[in-house]
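# step 3/5: fold
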Amino acid sequence: MDVPLWFALAVVGYLGCKLFRPPLWLVLVLLLGGYLIADSILAPVIAIVVK
């Protein structure tokens, strides 16, 4: 069964928010920070660290 990555991440994120109840500001900061870092000059450095 092939599931798109975006769908799997959305399901895991939704379940994580429902089960662990993190503050909304924390979720927004992580999403916005990840988006901004992914489009920055630091993206190649982070890609090496994550691998």
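# step 4/5: annotate
The chain is about 75% helix and 0% strand.
# step 5/5: archive (pending)
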